[in-house]
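Table S2 (text version). Query chain:
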Amino acid sequence: MNAETQRAGNAQWFPVPGVRLAAVAAGVKKPDRRDLVILALAEGSRTAGVFTLNRFCAAPVQIAKAHLTQGAPRYLLINTGYANAGTGKEGHARALATCALLASEAGCRPEQVLPFSTGVIGELFTLPPFERGIPAALASLDEHAWGVAAEGIMTTDTRPKVATRRLMLGTTEITITGMAKGAGMIKPNMATMLGFIATDAPVAQPLLAQWVQQLADRSFNRITIDGDTSTNDACMLVATGQADMPELVDADDADARALYHGLEQVFVELAQGIVRDGEGATKFVEIEVTGAASPADAKAVAETVAHSPLVKTALFASDPNWGRILAAVGRAPIEALDVDKVDIWLDNVQIVAAGGVAPDYAEARGAAVMAQGDIAIRIRLGEGAGEATVWTCDFSYDYVKINAEYRT
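Corresponding structure-token output:
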């Protein structure tokens, strides 16, 4: 078995046999921008997903979760402009109506359509854009349209996010390609804002469902931009089964492990792409916590640092104000913390040793690290073997501007 993967060039994304895509300007909210996207899945495809845990979850989230239990999906329908969250019974009815519209045009059951929406919360969309856009999208389905589809699901994103890999499982070449959107209201509690990853490998439904949760936990659930969990988060993993090889049913099988590794690379690349495109972001920051009493404690510390507005604004200013990092560690919601054991580094520059300033620390060295576009904050707690990594970004003036003007 050759499990070596290769990464495609920036402008090339490998098509996944069994997946066709389209994005059209339907005028859902604004004219002349792609805002309606369809993914058509080959018959026999397996689909699994994870969704937001926000209790005000949007109507399409509720419907997609329900439809997943009623059979194998054939179409994914995504609109931007309106999130269709906080819209009550009427919003639910309109989301169902979009599924019925697509089902009627495509010749499938409404339950075989999964709807997804992103945009402004609390406002209803109208149906005429879907009536116009769905036939146009179906007529332009193309297995190579990952790029335009990724543009079509963007909101405040500044660029499309697509990741792709090919790998060999035995003598069979397997493709993995995915796209995601998200730039603000990012603190996933399941997956990402919207993410769609597909492979042509045949994967049994129970294993696919297990993997999508594990992969989300290792990627999208480790990013945060502003600490706000969206009402519309959804991440879908599709296995079309078009590759000519036995179905993967055992996670410990060598081919399954190789496929999982390739999927993880795609998930992580997309998750990090969201952070790099965070609203107004100028810095990409990796926060690694080791030596915690448990992995949960490590993640709690990492997220507390990542969510701190004071830390994030210091990052934007390239200010090595390490006291802000130390203070965030100290208020993390964990019980086991001996401050005299805490060590902190900016990249390889130690700023804190045994709970106080490192003896050989010089502010100029810290400032040099903080001026970088990519920064690593490493925190060692000295309490156990728990560890976790979280990816975040800084807060700039533009973050406030973008969100203050979001609806204008």
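Notes on Table S2: The longest helix spans residues 254-276. Confidence is low (pLDDT under 50) at residues 1-10, 184-192.
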